[in-house]
Amino acid sequence: MTIEKRYENILNKINIASEKREVNQNSEVMLLGVTKNIKVDVIQEAINLGLKNLGENKVQEFLNKYDKIEGNVNWHFIGHLQRNKVKYIIDKVVMIHSVDSIRLAEEIDKRAFKIRKKMDILIEINICDEKNKSGIRFDEIENFINEIEKFKNINIKGLMIIPPKGKKTTFLKEIFQKVYKKKIDINATKRDNIVSYLSMGMSSDYEIAIECGADIVRIGQSLFKRDNIT
């Protein structure tokens, strides 16, 4: 199947899943093309088809691709981010999806201040407390937001999770619904930062995530396929 066919198929599934949403939500779903290990010419083909948002996991790989990509696209950083690498991406990305510590938020704030920018971020949650994954614990969310709200050069835009692999649909639904409910509860407190986005769907589960309230789906394999990696 060509990238064009895969892209059209994903958009179609996103639309169908959006119509099946179990929640009262009017926002459009953002398709974020995950470009980890994907060749530049393949990424460019997807952009030419209409893909507007790209997500990269590694700083060096992002920097290698950044100047080679043509077109009006928005870059997101979605991988684990070391504090000493923030300076390399702060002026190039529209959102950092993986903020999981106060020290990282502090560095983002400092670097954003230097270039007079307010950086949009998502808070990464380790939803199942998996030892091999980054992210804060689910029960730490409110306190974490309280701390980050002190930084003047950061906008908290939402929450991000990476669900466990190989789980049944019923289990995934419970997780996605739990995060959506947390979004509603946070916004009910009328904080300065409104939790607008839930980034919580990937190639294997994005339709379920959308039905449960996801606003951003991070799709790599289903769009680009393994035979197009570098």
Helix and strand arrangement:
Blueprint (H helix, E strand, L loop, with lengths): L2 H17 L10 E5 L5 H10 L3 E4 L2 H8 L7 E4 L8 H4 L5 E5 L2 H13 L4 E7 L15 H8 L5 E8 L7 H20 L8 E5 L4 H6 L4 E4 L1 H4 L6
Parallel strand pairs: 1-2, 1-8, 2-3, 3-4, 4-5, 5-6, 6-7, 7-8
Overall average pLDDT: 92
Helix content: 25-40%
Shape: globular
Number of separate strands? 8
Strand order of the largest sheet: 1-2-3-4-5-6-7-8
Structural category is alpha/beta
Report the C-alpha radius of gyration, rounded. 17 Å
Low-confidence stretches: none
Summarize the biggest pleated sheet. Answer: 8 strands, parallel, barrel
Provide a count of the helices: 9
Q: Could you list some keywords that capture this structure?
A:
single chain, 230 residues, alpha/beta, 8-stranded parallel β-barrel, 9 helices, 39% helix, globular
